[in-house]
């Protein structure tokens, strides 16, 4: 069983099971090294997933050269090996799971909620890279659904490869599983990220705890340029639209 430090790549790709993810998150709360690694690895899921499924050594210069910010070859090789091994383990256990969590850009932050939901710290608010990036992006679009009363702001920035986005979500209560979906002008739909909403919710006005008062900040990315996007939707896994934000 690998140590928590060696689980960074698998956690960034969302291929850990619930118990493994929970154990790593507990470790992450007190490990600056792992937090820095997660920031560095954010957004590598599409590239590494492709590499891990290729035969041979996993060397794909064309993919690497297409990215504007590239990690070292040694780091890529290490992560490809780790992802391939994790996938093999899950096949032997009889299932294969790739989380629908955000595929963030390499230079961007890891998608993260705005508060620490653990009971150890009493719901103490913690800073997140996604929240910091949200503040730096100037192109923001907001909307509040008249029926659900859920509010969302999507901050975005165009990149050579597509669009980086960070969602701020308010006034939503759980338990829910949700996704941020990009709807392009040509009708295509792309899931940019997904997450769970706990019972106490996010950004709830008048909430009794700091946990519930704080919005959710979570990042994502897609291959469409900003001028190709029609709107964003926050939807539940059951298909209910909570809020729509026009691009």
Defining key terms:
single chain, 247 residues, alpha+beta, Immunoglobulin-like, 4-stranded antiparallel beta sheet, 8 helices, 8 strands, 26% strand
What can you see in these coordinates?
InterPro entries: Anti_sigma_zinc_sf, Znf_put. This is Zf-HC2 domain-containing protein. It is a single chain. This protein is an alpha+beta fold and 247 residues long. The chain has helices at 8-13, 18-28, 32-41, 45-52, 61-65, 73-92, 129-136, 210-213; strands spanning 139-144, 151-159, 162-170, 176-184, 189-197, 216-222, 229-236, 241-246. Among the domains are: 7-53, no CATH class; 132-246, Immunoglobulin-like (Sandwich), CATH 2.60.40. It contains 8 helices and 8 strands; from the N terminus they run αααααααβββββαβββ. The strands form 2 sheets. Strands 1-2-3-6 form a 4-stranded antiparallel sheet, with helices on one face. A hairpin with a 4-residue loop joins β4 and β5 (189-197). The chain is globular and about 45 Å long. The termini are far apart.
Shape: globular
DSSP, total strands: 8
Q: How big is the Rg?
A: 18 Å
Beta fraction: 25-35%
Query: Which strand order do you get reading across the main beta sheet?
Result: 1-2-3-6
**Secondary-structure element series:** HHHHHHHEEEEEHEEE
The CATH class of one domain = Mainly Beta
Q: Give the termini separation.
A: 45 Å
CATH-defined architecture of one domain: Sandwich
Number of helices: 8
Fraction of residues in H or I helices: 25-40%
Pfam families: zf-HC2
Keywords: Membrane, Transcription, Transcription regulation, Transmembrane, Transmembrane helix
Organism: Streptomyces argyrophylli
InterPro entries: Anti_sigma_zinc_sf (IPR041916), Znf_put (IPR027383)
